[in-house]
Every structure is written in C-alpha cells, then in structure tokens.
Amino acid sequence: MSVYNILEVANTHGGSKEYLLALIEQFKEFATDHGMKFQPLKADEIATKSFSAYPIYEKLHFTENEWREILAKAAETKEIWIDVFDLYGIRIIEQNLELVTGIKLQASVLQNQIVLEALAKLNLTNKLLIINISAYSLEEIQAFIQTFTSRLNPKELLLEVGFQAYPTELQDSGISKLQTLKEYFSNRIVFADHIAGTHEDARWLPVMATMLGADFIEKHIMHDSLPTEYDHFSSMTVDNYRLYLEAQKRYANLTKKSFINQREIEYLEKTIQIPLTSKQLAAGSLVSENQDLVFKRSGETGMNANQIKKLQQNLHVLAVAKAPETTFQPEDFKKATIGTVIACRLKSTRLTSKALLKIGELTSVEYCIKNCLKLEQVNHTILATSTVEQDAPLENYTYRSDVKFFRGHPDDVIQRYLGVAEKYNLDVIIRVTADMPFVSNEILQILLKSHFETGADYTVGKDAAVGTNLEIINVAALKYVKQFFPNADYSEYMTWYFQNNAEHFKLNFVELPSELVRDYRLTLDFQEDLEMFNLVEKHFQETKQPFALKTLFNFLDQNPEVAKLNHNIQQKYKSDPELIATLNKVTKITELAS
C-alpha cells in the first residue's frame, strides 16, 4: 500500500542550524513520496512569558534568512511542509511560498482567528492543508472542515490524528479514530505517530495505520550522532527509519479504542491557544472575536472563544473592564440590562407637536410606545424628553404605567441617553425616535442576535424602510463618544457619531430578510406622513389584524396609491449637501475633538 511520509523535524535541532542542515543531509536518500516538515515560530507570538516552554521557544528561533537557507536545502530532495503556530510562521510561508507543498495546523491552533485571517490572505489554491483534530468531536471537525475550506481554499484539506506526549503511549495513539473518520468524512487522513522512537512499535504502528486507511504518515526524526536536546523521545534515527519503511502491519485490536482519550484532552487543555484581550476593553462592552482577541498559549486559565460566544448569545456583556493580554473568566460577564429609549420633543417646526397628533385613537408617541412594548428581551422602555417646559406634557403620554419617563439635556441627545442609562443601569440601548410609530420586533430580534454574536458596539439594519430601522448601541460606546464631544451639538443625528468613526467602533451592518425591506417612508415629519399612517391604521382596525411589519408592507404593496402619499419626501440628512458636509466634519473623532 502506497503512503506519503512526512519527516517531522520538530524541535530536534534545539536551535542549531548546523544540526538541522546535517539532519537534512542524513535523510536525503528518502525522496519519492516524502516531505519534510518544519516549525518556524517566535516566542512572543506563540505564548506568553508565563507559559512554561517560553524559554525553549526563544532558543528554537531562526531568522527569516536562516529559514530561507534551511528550506532551500531540504527542497533539493523533498517537498516542504510547514507547521503554523503564529504570525511568524505565516511570514516564513509567505517568503518561501514557491517551496511549500503543504501547511499543518495543530489542534491547539484551530481556534486562532488571527492566524486564520492571515492565512486567508495567502494564495493556497495549490497547497495541501493538514488540520490536527485530536480531542475534537465529529461535529467540531465538520465545522472546522467547512471553515478552513471556505476561508483558505486549499487544494485539499487533510485530517490528522495523533498528539505528542513525550512520548505518546500506545493506547493513546489515536489509531482507533481512523475508521470513524473514514466513515464520516471524505477527506484523506494523516496519522502522526509519536510512539517512543527506539521501540519496535514505532515501526509497526504507522504501518497498521495505513492498513486502516491512513494516506499520510508523519514520523519524527533525529540525527543519529549529534546531541538531540528536544523531541528525541518519539524521534527515529535514520537506521530505524529504514526499518520502519520495511515494516508490516500489526495491532488490529487498537482500532477499538475510544475516539477521544483523556490524555489528549489534557494535552489540548495544557497547550490550546486561548483567547486573551488584544486591547483595553471597557465594562459594559461586548467581545468581538475578530477585533478584541489574540490567541496564545498561556500559563493562566481562561474561557475559550466558544464559551465567550455562548455567554454573549445569551445577552451577556462584560461586567468589568479588562486590561490587555488578560484571559476571560465567567465572572467577568453579566446579563445585559437592555433599554428601549424613545427620544421625543414637542418643538417640531415642520409638523407642530407631531408627537401628540393622532394615528387612529392614539397620539403618535403613544402609538410608537405601544409597538416598542412588543419588543422582546428588553428590560425597560423609557420615553426620554428634555427639561424644557414645553416638553413637560409628554409625561401624560407614556401609554402604560410601566413605561418610564425621563427628562434630560434639551439639545445634547447623547447626554440625555447617558442620563437614562445611568438612572436605569442600562448596558445596551435600543435607539428609537418618537416619529417612528411602526417599530418592529421582527427587525429587533434579528439585530439583537447579530449585535451580541458579533460583539459589536453599534448595530443597524441595512436598507430598511425609513422609520423602521433600529439602532443598538452599547452604553460603553456612548460614553466613549462623550469623551471626544463634551457638547455633542448635533447628537440628534447620533448615527453619524458612530458610522463616521469606523476606526473607533465595532460597527455591525446587518442584512435584513427581503420581506422586511421596502422603499417606503414610515417616519412622521409632514402632513402627508400623517395621512398615510392613518390609512394604514384604518386597515389594521378594519381587518382586526395585530400590527406586524410584514402585514403593513403587504398592505402598501397592494395599495400603491397609499404609499405614494409621502413617497417623494426626502430626509434632510440624505438630501441636504450642506448638512451632510457639516455632519461629516463635526461628528468625526479627531485629536482636536478630544
């Protein structure tokens, strides 16, 4: 049975280039169906100084020029494979891409999004990719296959079995996984053998693996006369390697071992690159896997990325501020307090006191509040107006007794929102204005789910009808804005303070399903809007249908003459070039703004 053999150099060289070149020379006779694999790494990129092997990683480092020389020498007789642990390894691949046949990612690296993102920038269409799946379940393996295939687009993705335990015991070799993997996946299999190099099993076990379906065998090798400081436990000398190539099958009963064994779980727990903060994170913020994390091996314990993601999917935010390069603990999170804050004033000049004008039997502000109360997963609904006496009557229009009423800054809407957040201990705000009577829970649930899953600061839907979109904003992000704009004079256009500062905030623009997207105008500013809204409400009353945005759109789709009543009205912030230019200038975070 033909099998491709990968000669694993690992760390036997102990940081000596001379050793490594001598090892390449000693194994040059093995060429056909052979590759040689190397591990370029950099100590401060693969681990923190608290990790026990950090000093060893420092010793093992070769410069980029040294790696170029080493790989060129090996490529004279063999195909080149690279183990990737960190961004340094990716730089070596990029600089020697024409020499590289394949890339391997160990089990401890598969959740490192930083490495994955960097690899995705390389052209790997003619490269083989090995992912080691030790200690992962079948469901997790399937997810990894989909992720790495779609994002990296390799020529072929291979699944590897086996882990290093200095040396690995025979019963933990993972050979029992091979038949299961063959049954569940169509990918070719790599068997990484880490049995003690001097034992006869080191020759026979990989042969058995090939009989059970392994297509590639990875063997550790060492020089037969030079001192070998590291990785010698499972490494073979050239004479033993020759014997391995002549060996035949053995140990059929090993295929009955369990899929995941306890020791490989312990190995993964000890070596897995766990998420650490990449920068200072404020209390009340969310964690973005792509923007807020680095992945390293660490001597500290902490949550993994999936655990963090699950907490956030359950609407949790950071309960405490996090310093850079720290791990995450469950107690660092708390359930978010979410509030719908409805901004409203009675100073409208285009449509006088529009908040008190009737849509059906309710004032427009009460109509808005009524629909806001249908928003799920919200702790508080607050009508927020100013301290100006003109706005005092709004306290009589909260629709229901459990709706909170708040009076704050008359002009600085951000300050008013922060006042609401402080009073009700809000972590996340759903921003609504009272001229939006048709607030939709359907849209909110889509945005809320995406906001927490992505770890955003600010979330908004794309292409929603005017007056139906919602904005979800972390209070921590609002506080950050306030640091730069003590007097946010244009904060009634709050959107601009976020969307105009993408380098400062994690912005999340969500694609909405087509049934929730239309080019209708559903905001109240003009008499034509009011006339159109009353026709909509009349339809709901006559048909006795509860409000739903899809139902509203269906009515307007079937009654275009109603939709045309206000269709030609343009929003000022979209049509006034002077206002747009002003907003672009005054809402931009700059050194001067601070």
Automatic annotation (TrEMBL):
A molecular function GO annotation: nucleotidyltransferase activity
InterPro entries on file: Aldolase_TIM, Cytidylyl_trans, Nucleotide-diphossugar_trans, PseI-like, PseI/NeuA/B-like_N
Domain named PseI/NeuA/B-like: residues: 48-247
Pfam families per UniProt: CTP_transf_3, NeuB
Keyword line: Nucleotidyltransferase, Transferase
PANTHER family: N-ACETYLNEURAMINATE SYNTHASE, SIALIC ACID SYNTHASE
Protein name: Cytidylyltransferase domain-containing protein
Protein's organism: Adhaeribacter terreus
